[in-house]
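Q: Here's a chain of 329 amino acids. Please give me its 3D structure as tokens.
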Amino acid sequence: GGVGGRHLAIKTCDTQNNNPTTAKACAVSLLGQGAKIIFTTCDVDFATPVVQAAINRGVLAIAPCIGTDQMGPKRFAAKGKLAFSFGNVAQDEGSAMAQYAHDRGWKTAGLATNTLLVYFKNVVQAFDKRFRQLGGKVVDRESYATGANNVQSAVTRLNSHKAQVYVTSTSFGELPAFVSGLRSLGNKTPIINSWAGDGTYWVTKNPKVTNYYFVTYASVFGDDPSLAVRRMIAALKGAHAAPATGGFLGGADAIDGIVTAIKRAHGSTKGSALAAQLVKFHRVPVLGGRISFSAKLHTVFGRDYRVIEINNNKARLKGLVRAKVIPKL
């Protein structure tokens, strides 16, 4: 494979668990070896030394799954024009969740925000704003934090406010604590989460997870609507690298997107030339569907999210949803 008669090659360097000094040295080393594009990790804080090393040299910096709007000029100023993420921007994801809730006829929502990450906070903020734009009512807003041992108190307060759906964006140990916490109180109301809550690796045996929804890139449960995605999952399984969540598509989509940008730039791999093409992406086809960027948003929006439902600890595709509006936060 390749583009324009040139093969694509991936070189790697161990950042020693995102050690800032090591990560920057890795990026400088790879650039010294002639790297035309630098891929980085999926947390913008950890990614910063690598991104800066690339963009300061006029090289495109790509993250497969950073989910905030900070991968671009918002964080990196003018040189941030060379920074992009093929993750889903939180505002789009939260808006899609609100759209799904509206489409299901859920008119009241209780919100719980994990304050650990900007991504977690932005998803819930976007849901809040878009849900109300769609005529929904938010009956309660609670917060908790990873590692603070305060999930159950937030759940208890949330439980005192009847709603047709409870909304959060979380993972880690707080995800099973949040879901089982509500269920242990006898509350069977639907819960919807972002991509952060993808997969079944976290489900509890007692109580079993039921009436739980999340949006994600792809269904890894054998029922994704895309044949190409199902084939990719099968290939990964064959390589003993079966994906636990749909997030694997961020990397695949990034390769597809970069190839498209190179072709549209007439074979150029210059950072500014590729960036000029990426910001023009509007519903551009990649493995996971169609994606968009803009001059302001260098993180993907407009994706057709897969909505997955878990009942009795078993996950299945429920449908697709796309955000119609990206709320300004």
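Q: Can you summarize the key feature?
A: The two ends are 41 Å apart (CA to CA).
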